[in-house]
Amino acid sequence: MAQLIDGKIISKQIKDELKEQVTAMKTEGKEVGMAVIQVGKDPASTVYVGNKKKACAYIGIRSESYELPEETTQEELVTLIERLNRDDAIHGILVQLPVPAHIDEQAIIRAISPKKDVDGFHPQSVGALSIGQKGFVSCTPAGIIQLLKRSNIEIEGKECVVIGRSNIVGKPMALLLLRENGTVTVAHSRTKNLKEVCKRADILVVAVGRPKMIDASYVKEGAVVIDVGIHRGADNKLCGDVDFDSVEPVASAITPVPGGVGPMTIAMLMYNCVEAAR
Ligand code: NDP
């Protein structure tokens, strides 16, 4: 039976560590502040924003909430971000994505000061990661590194295969595994012989965005399997990109969905915000 990598427990550990640090910072007169901006009323975004605000409250981070109407212009949003960039009481700025179609997402990401870019999406943060310099790292892949490290899974020297090359998961994941001295292959929709490539992996990170696509036929005996995907099935149940029931007997360790990678993303967002305040 595979070891279950429990993101609920590990994310709670991280949040509790942060809570202690934030409490200590408060005794030195420093309060950590985060601005959370949502444009429009997309129901999924409202849930994500709510969870982020809850996590702030748990840790003791002061969160400022900006719920802007759907018709907010790009200029108005940039003006708000620029004001928050100058506000010393705000250490992290989070704009919940996606923004409505009339707003250029990249322009919004670039408007956020790299010093307050707690999502790690700014080109300067991405560039810093790729040349091995300090900067904020995209929260989901950063959370996966924490899941591996805190489960005592060694990355150094391991064959790591990442399925997916998106800017928010696949690419930063590959760079982080490389930083940890893994031997990294990135697979995508044009990869030939995907099964053979995946079967080389000691650590297989699946961010393919297709429900239950990866079954045991993609997985080497004893591999560690990290499932980034999150989907709601017709039965209203959540599932990942990995067919858990098929893969679990083959893997040495695996993340469940829900309760694996998902809870780590918010924990790492909080981590980035506390780092920003330091
Ligand atoms: P994207 O859709 O942006 O990227 C999917 C990637 O998978 C692309 O690089 C694509 O290749 C590749 N791909 C698609 N189909 C195939 C295929 N048949 N064979 C091989 N590769 C394929 O998704 P994201 O990276 O944003 O997200 C991935 C998953 O993770 C989603 O399920 C998403 O919901 C989830 N997610 C979960 C988070 C969490 O907190 N748990 C956070 C973010 C995402 P190509 O580039 O060639 O098109």
Give a quick summary of the entry:
With 278 residues, the protein is α/β, with parallel strands linked by helices.
> How many runs of DSSP E, i.e. beta strands?
11
Please identify, by name, the CATH architecture of the largest domain. 3-Layer(aba) Sandwich
The radius of gyration is 19 Å
Bound molecules: NADPH dihydro-nicotinamide-adenine-dinucleotide phosphate
Order of helices and strands: EHEHEHEHHHEHEHEEEEHEH
Strand content: 15-25%
Instruction: Give the biggest sheet.
Output: 6 strands, parallel
CATH overall fold name of the largest domain: Rossmann fold
* CATH C-level category of the largest domain: Alpha Beta
Helix content: 40-55%
Summing up helix and strand content along with how strands pair, one would put the structural category as alpha/beta
